[in-house]
Description:
The chain is of the alpha/beta class. The protein is 45% helix and 15% strand. Strand 4 (73-76), helix 3 and strand 5 form a beta-alpha-beta unit.
Amino acid sequence: xxxxxxxLITGGSKGIGRIIAExxxxxxxxxxxxxxxxxxxxxxxxxxxxxxxxxxxxxxxTTVEAELGPVEVLVANAGVTKDTLIARMSDxxxxxxxxxxxxxxxxxVRRAARPMTRGRFGRIILVxxxxxxxxxxxxxxxxxxxxxxxxxxxxxTRELGSRNITCNVVAPGFINTDMTASLPPETIKGYEARxxxxxxxxxxxxxxxxxxxxxxxxxxxxxxxxxxDGGLGMGH
Length: 236
């Protein structure tokens, strides 16, 4: 592995994104991470960016290129939820999730693809969800936004594959985060009962999958969906 590869992670200040940033940093990559609030891990270049704003996406890439060099690995992780049943879901709930999770990913990928094409190397990793393929009540907007990333990755694979650029999807299941930590114990037990591994995953599990897909050993893997869900989504 070339230790000098430049990685940009969107949504890298907390949760899974923060652990991904730490994992790449510890593996010797040059790492930058976007955030809207908060801070990024030590040793990671923090760039303030809201992926719903094209100007901010452009400015973030320009900053990373000036400080570290062209982005060679993009981990599109930034995402939001606005959960509610379809009868109560507003246009604003729908638009906010689609604009961040899907269109925000598109903006980042579009900006990353140009220098990757020129450099004839790229690793694009889209962070989806087990919900994308299984569905979940109250998450029509979220599931739709995350399912669309599969079509995006496979289209990008056909479009950019000949330039030594891969695009894959990581689909986490139920992961231990600040959000799940606030849930009632009976809710957690319900999740665990549905998961063949009988436990929630860790952010480090997702980070390990992203690190693998970014590496030289994964150069012939593209358009794939890699579940990190303890077996929850089998058959979907």
